[in-house]
Amino acid sequence: MRCAMRHFSLPYRQFWRLACLSISLCLTQTVSSSEENIAKEIRVYIEPQTLVALENGKQVYSFDIVSGQPGKETTLGTFGVLRKHEKYTSKAYGSEMPYSMFFSIDGKAIHGTHMSVLRSYLHAYLNESVGSKGCIGLTDDNAKALFDWAPVGTPIIILADKE
After folding, report:
1. Res. 39: pLDDT tops 70
2. Which DSSP letter does residue 129 get?
3. Which helix (H) or strand (E) holds 15?
4. pTM of this structure
5. Looking at domain 6-159, which of 2.40.440.10, 3.90.230.10, 1.10.10.10, 3.40.50.300 is its CATH number?
6. E strand or H helix at 141
7. Of the candidates 48, 61, 42, the residue with the CA atom closest to the CA atom of residue 120
């Protein structure tokens, strides 16, 4: 039996990226929540190293973050929470990632990380090399609060700086 994908005009990897992007966009259109008409959104600002959680346009949380280091920058754009894992270990780096909320098909997530407050300060003001491998790092307590608050499908908007 021949694979139907062989005749597809896009390379296999691009096809799956487009498929996952389509799913992500659909999820951001319909945020699943137990309470109807509640618009939740997560905004990440790389330059001031902060994350803001909004509910119906009002700030619910504001946290310091650690974003990607040079060569492993956090991707800018609009995403959605694709899946969540309370306990997760990175397959690529072997590091613990508590309260992970994945937003990209290549494994980028918002999650708890060690010494995130110190790393956020160092990353923002002194040396970007203390950053992550592209994920958004929070303290474990902040990651848990966000994990509990944001359902799968919550939009995540990652911007270079505050507007």
Report:
1. yes
2. G
3. helix 12-29
4. 0.70
5. 2.40.440.10
6. helix 140-149
7. 48
